[in-house]
Design goal:
- This protein is mainly β and 244 residues long.
- The chain has a single domain, classed as Jelly Rolls.
- Helices cover 4% and strands 44% of the residues.
- It contains two helices and 14 strands.
- Strands 1, 2, 4, 5, 7, 10, 13 and 14 form an eight-stranded antiparallel β-sheet that branches. A six-stranded antiparallel β-sheet has the order 3-6-12-8-9-11.
- A hairpin with a 4-residue loop joins strand 1 and strand 2.
- The longest helix has 5 residues.
């Protein structure tokens, strides 16, 4: 199937009793559909009409900062109450042409972060749950790689591989945590912003040059029958190359 503009697909499968809705932003119409990247004195983010996966359009940032943050807080297809679904899958195509200065080969973390402004407390800008896909740099892979994760939004505890932000640090590990009393499901019932980011909670980085492009940012929300749940690998993540 050829992706065009903002795509919404309703999928039904009698074999697995699976019903789902997929929304994909591929930037082919020149519109960002709510997705934004860093702007300012360090550089800019823009839709590059020929730099997406397969030669189409992509959301590209060329920026000097301690990290970059692609986010969306206006497109309702990516926001709201995730807990009304049995599972949610988020995926994005990623290309890295530069991090750091020419030839240094610096790697940075790339993470999915789901943020709630309403649950923020104690001076934090938001409460969030985040999944680190991996650390990548310009020499990690050629062209595009697809990052994807599927998770159960109704889980009480943070799924394996996920972290929390917005509460006091763990006194033993010093890692950030969710606010006291806030569960993973609480946060996912009130997603105000979704981000693909290198600004990993608890880490600090030097200022570096970034040339990074995103394409085919996708969310799939499924409501399978109970018998189909066993077929879903919840909290899984993969990194594979994909062509259009």
């Amino acid at each position: 199937m050829t992706m065009k503009h903002l795509i919404t697909i309703v999928a039904l499968s009698a074999g697995t009793a699976l019903a789902g809705t997929t929304t994909t932003v591929d930037f082919e119409d020149g519109m960002a559909h709510g997705w934004e990247g860093p702007q300012g004195i360090g550089g800019s983010s823009f839709i590059d009409p020929t730099y997406g996966n397969g030669g189409g359009a992509g959301l590209r940032t060329q920026f000097n900062n301690f990290g970059i943050d692609f986010y969306n807080n206006t497109n309702s297809d990516f926001l709201g109450d995730y807990t009304q679904y049995e599972s949610v899958t988020v995926s994005v195509d990623l290309r890295i042409d530069q991090i750091g200065f020419t030839g240094l080969g610096i790697s940075r973390p790339f993470a999915l972060e789901l943020r709630s402004f309403d649950l923020a407390s104690d001076g934090y800008p938001w409460a969030s749950a985040y999944l680190l896909f991996d650390w990548y740099g310009a020499h990690s892979f050629d062209g595009y790689i697809t990052l994807s994760t599927t998770f159960d939004p109704n889980a009480t505890d943070l799924p394996i591989g996920w972290g929390g932000f917005g509460g006091p640090e763990d006194p033993d590990t010093f890692e950030p945590q969710l606010p006291p009393g806030v569960t993973f499901a609480d946060l996912l019932s009130d997603v105000d912003e979704i981000a693909i980011t290198t600004i990993l909670p608890g880490y600090f980085f030097t200022f570096d040059d970034y040339d990074v492009t995103l394409d085919n940012i996708s969310i799939t929300r499924t409501v399978p029958a109970p018998s189909a749940l066993a077929l879903i690998g919840l909290s899984g993540l993969v990194g594979t190359r994909r062509r259009r």
